[in-house]
Amino acid sequence: MKAGYALFLSAVAVLFTLTLTAPYFEKVGDEGSARFNYEVFSGFCHQRPERSFHLFGYKMAVCARCFGVYFGLLAGCLLYPAVWAKRGGIPPGWLLAASLLPLALDGRVEFLGLWAGSNLLRFMTGLLFGGFVPFYLIPALDKAAGVFIRRLR
Amino acid sequence: MQAEVDLRRILLSCATVGLVVGIIGAIPVVRLPNLCCLWVIAGGFTCAYLSLRNTKGVETVDGAIIGAIFGFMYGILNQAVLFLINTLFTLLGLGLDVRGVAFGGLSGVLDLHIGGVLWGLLLIILTTLESVLFGAVGGALYAVVANSEDIPDPRRGKIRKS
To answer: What is the dihedral sign for C-alpha A142, A146, A148, A149?
Structure first.
């Protein structure tokens, strides 16, 4: 397994797990750990309860859109070896920009109060973007790791 | 020499943009439009633009690395500014955990359990990891936009090699 892939998968797996553990800690009454979980994502997500999925009756650490992004990151990462690794290179650049567009549009229009989307739509737009990201960052990370290892030698 | 100058420019642009976005991203209410990491992605994009605008044939890896450097600086600076703002809020008698007005961040976990400081360090590491990830996305986005001549012809289905 290449270093870049392993690094990316580890980081994404840690972050994805943390989105799920906050409600679990709430459920078992470990408020300190739950608070820590929520704070990890508080700088990146509004965490509004009405825009978040709930587990065990408690809201997840991120909103539905961000959960879609993290879920997509993990799914893309797991699919990468089977779908793209043998092909090599990166997909066309416009696909990455296009995948971000629905998320940005839905989020901005919603923020301006012009559109009230659903959690499912938020999740889907996040999933679309997150799912594409690994196909660009893993090759970049693999290349960077290769250069770093060569320099070390 | 050229590489040295470029590195200085990269670090300077990452530090400047990291500080600006880090401050904006920590100010209560003003920070609200930072939905789903878009500001961090935009910061990575901006840094890659500032660093590579005169460079031809920008590769995705270059953009991603510059975005990741921005993300690293943003993660640290944002937590530091957030900590100062939250301390000020506490001194003024305003609550820390008012969603949309002020987030706890580092201040929110320092009093957790016995090892509050360790939780604080872990929080900085994890939030910086998130910033690096999304900053790299922004930098990679710049690279693909900068290489717009590589936009594939859908009829031919060209795939650009990194």
So the answer is: positive
